Each structure stands twice: as C-alpha cells, then as structure tokens.
Amino acid sequence: TQFDALTETLVSDEVLSLLALQRYDRLILQVGKGAEPKVPASAPLKVEWYRVKKSLEEDMKAAALIISHAGAGSILEGLGLGKLMIVVVNDRLMHNHQQEVANELASRQHLLSTTPSGFAAKLRSLGEAPPALEPWPAPDTTAFPRFLATELGLPA
Can you give the residue ranges of the Glycosyl transferase family 28 C-terminal domain (predicted)? Predict the structure, then answer.
C-alpha cells in the first residue's frame, strides 16, 4: 500500500494543530511502501509510524478516531469497531471504486468521507459539531446457514 498524499496531509502543520485542538495527543500512521513521513519538529502531538503490521485491529481498537484510506477491507474493519471514522479517498486513482464505496457509506451516515485536499476542513467540522453517525449493523451469522438450508430443501 502507498498513499503519500494522505500521509503528507496528516503530518501537515495544519492537520496536526487541528488534532491537538480537538484534544488528540497521538497520531499513529501505517505508511506501507510510501515515503517516510516528514513530521515537523514542532508537532503539537506525538506522531508514530510504521510500514506494515499483520493486523491493525489493536491500533484501531485503541483509537478515538480512525482515519483510513478507502480500501473496502480497512473500512469494514473500522466500521465493525463502532468508532468515528474518516475515510480519505485517493482521488488520483482511475476508475475509482473507492470513491463509490466511501460515498455510499457516507451517504448512509456510517462514516465521513473526504479527499486529502478536503481533510483539514472535514476535521475542522468535527470540532464544530460532532456528527451523529449510524452504527454499522452487526453481522447476521445465521443468514448464510438459513440460505443454504433453504437451497438444499432442509428445515431452516
């Protein structure tokens, strides 16, 4: 994975200051194959980063706010934890299915969606009026067994 525009946005003076104003004290970044973040020496909060981890679950569970790229797997993992989530779409991609997924979930009020250039404004809006987002529904673990039983002519 690589999304340098997102990483650069997150370590900008403006975004770090906004995060600190909203009482966040730490930012943890996964940068994948991207460039090493250039964190300002005067950053008003602690910034940590790593390339990859086997699972982001521990970091996501500990987070008050999840900021994610718009990959479906990352989105679903974050939504399943019931956390406030801002999804940042890579608007430089062609045939951008990520934009479609993020826009649809934002229109259903499960998350907030933006692009790197709109991120600071989206973050600023959180400080003005935190959104009332719809919780992601819990998975129905009985749906597939019921479907299979019906298809096989068995009692459901």
Answer: 3-129
Give the pLDDT of the chain (156 residues) as one tens digit per residue.
Answer: 689 999 999 999 999 999 999 999 999 999 999 999 999 999 999 999 999 999 899 999 999 999 999 999 999 999 999 999 999 999 888 778 889 999 999 999 999 999 999 999 999 999 888 788 999 999 899 999 999 999 999 987
- Residue 57's contacts (CB-CB under 8 Å, 6 or more residues apart) are 77
In the three-class reduction of DSSP (H, G, I as helix; E, B as strand; rest coil), residue 132 is classed as coil
Q: How far apart are CA 102 and CA 86, in angstroms?
A: 10
What would you report as the CA-atom Rg of the chain, rounded to the nearest whole angstrom? 18
| Distance, CA of 111 to CA of 23 (rounded, Å) | 20
> What is the domain class of 4-151 according to CATH?
alpha beta
pTM for the full predicted model: 0.88
